[in-house]
């Protein structure tokens, strides 16, 4: 152990603030996982872990999209309504054209989500409207639109084509397609956020919008791009949700936007913009996911979920807010 | 500045008149004293919360946990009623829960230094989540008979207690905001909190007080709503935060702080309330109305922004 | 003399009805430092924005290397080779220094950012500048002076041929200024054309080879620094010669108003003890970071001290302390509000003793002070935003004088305001002191401190390093006490 410590210390010193935070949070998540496993040995079984990942997959994708928006100083409260509307659209299309196959339906879903997200983005970019007001408004509009589309009726499993539902549930190497999508998406984000110039421009726009415009980056346009990508992800997630749960109705994913924001905040995405890592966000989703799936084990009703989300958000922001204020320059020199 | 606001309020008044014209043509039931009296129930509870929320937004903050506070206060009262607490006690419990919840918001923002948008996104989940956790899918219905008079009772003729409360408080808030030095302070804090601090204003104390006040009035709304419905579900007042924020912003209060008037908020509450009531008379379901509410909220901020782009 | 690298001819620019630049002309030579002087509102910042590509001129021409050019966007500016070091540090705190240097121009390999190349090149540029920080430092951890270096490094990465420095020494300590000048000279010697915008004559005479003066949007003079005197520059800037800048009213020391004993606040200052008498102007001199503003905020009551005592006596006990803060636009006043509203704010309790506000009373108060301080405004309802810097400062001072305090603290009261308004501020301050009140004036402007103060305290790194009477105070003595030398 003592031989390892100096190496670890050197590694730690070389890490950036963001990486240190991720490391610490990963450790915390592991501790939580092991704590639960200690009480319930079955929790760590491969089957359970696969199930956990499956449950969390859609959240991971949504949270990655939300992260982009928060990164550029925005927020998207309409993400879940977007998901639900696209999901309903996918289900209805599938019901009307069961022989068309899965691919066109998914494409339609993504396209719809992109438009819905783009609408948010245009208002924030061109009219410089406050994101909280815009997405509060579109959240209602999109939910209401679901009712208009479906006349309040549900689309049930027996109305969905086999392929529609089966896609998300197919298994490869013990994990569902859904899980692989989430893992793939996370990996893509991790690489893209680091390596793509567009992503670096997003970080710049969120960190200092004024400096960004002097460097030739339009912060409003970055927000538009973020909202559009987030919308596209929400569109995809809409199909995935409806296919996984094999049902579509007006209230699906109600309140999910708050869970997703909670996951981002606890994962280290700063509400002020400019800071955040994909790894942190994935860990945030897993952290909340572990809590959620351990609730029934410790015989706490799932009605506590919303409360826990709120508590998690508050703890996460309190911790980061207090830390920021304490940084003051020391002016006094020792005599 | 006064000129522009006057234009906004005039526009709202015009819209209100147009609404009346429209709905009375579309529905024979509209222009009836009893119908209009019923209509007021539709918005007075929300409008009561819009009053302190307007002050809060003018001061540069926001609170979207108001509906969650209503739910929590309602659950508290339901539990109290189930344990035999009498009507006055229940009202105190409702108000007290609201006040405490508002104080939590205030503490998070002033002591915790958490931006109010994030704090109230968190407490929104926390408060309503607590309501769900405690109640699950049960309903609390054991309220004493006298409790119903708050929300269902009338002062004189067609004028309900709820409407009376709203009128009284609207006047009080109007005078407070526009004519007293504390109202001036609120505008200053919203326009520039740093300069306000340097001018000697206890900015954090004002913020805390406004959050607590908003919570208190959310508690009041909970008392009225619960008394009117006669029951408590954890989903009570679901989505009301959108309606209440819409009323405030529709009333001409700027999201950036430092601007707005009570007259505007009152007119907006009337516009909003009668429209939703009128649509309800025409049998349009609530969820479709929320498309209208959402679009209205966006239009209210988008149109001025579009116009000032030139 | 070889042809200039950059020439601006008769540039015009208006915003709405306001004419920011009328006939602005400027010439920058290779391998030289040109100082741009002018009061606030003379058009300097508009010029910088035009050269940065943020605004486009309404008229006039810009030539680079003899060819006419258009700077349509910040990207254009970068491509042409115009770099700017802005007053507000336009640095990305959330990114590393290396990434800051290459924003929008990251080296790429196969479409992805080439981090290794980026870090190596960044390190090389920082080495060239002899910077005291490394490329992978998060930019948020740097001091203002270091952030200026980052902006310069960025300009080097962009291979800027012209570098504009907009008031770069505003928040720098003496040592940091020396360091900055070293870099400026190095860039000049390598053939860069530098434009040095500054208010401070001492610096301009030290670093610049040539000068241009703007007044009310017009260039009124240009030439070599060697051929001009300070007075001539002032005359060009103001349009008349301004002598009576510092009113010399005799001091009548009175009773003690304020006594400070062993005052300390962790991390900011310690062991501060002094007394202030009525009729006295006490100057506090020091370099940036000395802790003067922090001391002022404690004296005013905005922050609390950890140790020590502060006692008000005599008239000051009931009248209290007022503070005119350093940043007039963010801390001093509420720009979108009217003059009357601003004046009313610290005086609400007096104007509305039972809570009830009266608009006529507030307007009357505003009119009274508009007259007393000769504020150039259309009336009490005019928004402070539309006033010039000097008049804005007068409003800030008025709102506190209306409170009738016993002690008035002024933190850098004449920073960034025109010479005429400076004189007015000094006159009001002296008058206030001679009326039997106490004044504490914090300033980094040596002539101002020497001209105004009856006594001078010098702070360095949070402690008192010297006390001088008017007779004892000289530039050398104050500087020596204030710096590490």
Structure description:
The complex is a heterotrimer of chains A (335), B (310) and C (485). By secondary structure, chain A is mainly alpha-helical. Chain A has a single domain (19-30, 46-326), classed as Orthogonal Bundle (ABC transporter involved in vitamin B12 uptake, BtuC), CATH 1.10.3470. In chain A, 73% of the residues lie in helices and 1% in strands. Chain A has helices at 4-14, 17-39, 46-71, 79-96, 102-126, 131-150, 162-169, 177-195, 197-207, 209-214, 219-245, 256-266, 278-294, 305-325; strands at residues 171-172, 175-176. Chain A has a two-stranded antiparallel ribbon with strand order 1-2. In chain A, helix 3 packs across helix 12 and helix 4 runs antiparallel to helix 5. The two termini of chain A are 42 Å apart. Mean pLDDT of chain A is 88; it is low at 325-335. Chain B is mainly α and 310 residues long. Chain B has a two-stranded antiparallel ribbon. In chain B, a hairpin with a 2-residue loop joins strand 1 and strand 2. The longest helix of chain B has 27 residues, at 203-229. With 485 residues, chain C is an alpha/beta fold. Chain C contains 18 helices and 21 strands. In chain C, strands 6-9-10-3-11-12 form a six-stranded mixed beta sheet, sandwiched between helices. A six-stranded mixed beta sheet of chain C has the order 17-18-19-15-20-21, sandwiched between helices.
Gist?
The complex is a heterotrimer of chains A (335), B (310) and C (485). Chain A is mainly α and 335 residues long.
Named at the architecture level, the CATH assignment of chain A is Orthogonal Bundle
In round numbers, the mean pLDDT of chain A is 88
Q: How many domain regions of chain A?
A: 1
What topology, given as strand order, has the largest sheet of chain A? 1-2
Number of helices of chain A: 14
Poorly predicted parts of chain A: 325-335
Order of helices and strands of chain A: HHHHHHHEEHHHHHHH
Largest binding interface between chains = A-B, 47 and 50 residues
Structural category of chain C: alpha/beta
Beginning-to-end CA distance, first to last residue of chain C: 40 Å
Strand order of the largest sheet of chain C: 6-9-10-3-11-12
Ends distance of chain A: 42 Å
What characteristic shape of chain A results from the CA principal axes? globular
Mean pLDDT of chain C: 87
Number of strands of chain C: 21
Q: What is the rounded Rg of chain A?
A: 21 Å
- Taking all Cα atoms into account, the compactness measure Rg of chain C is 24 Å
Helix content of chain C: 25-40%
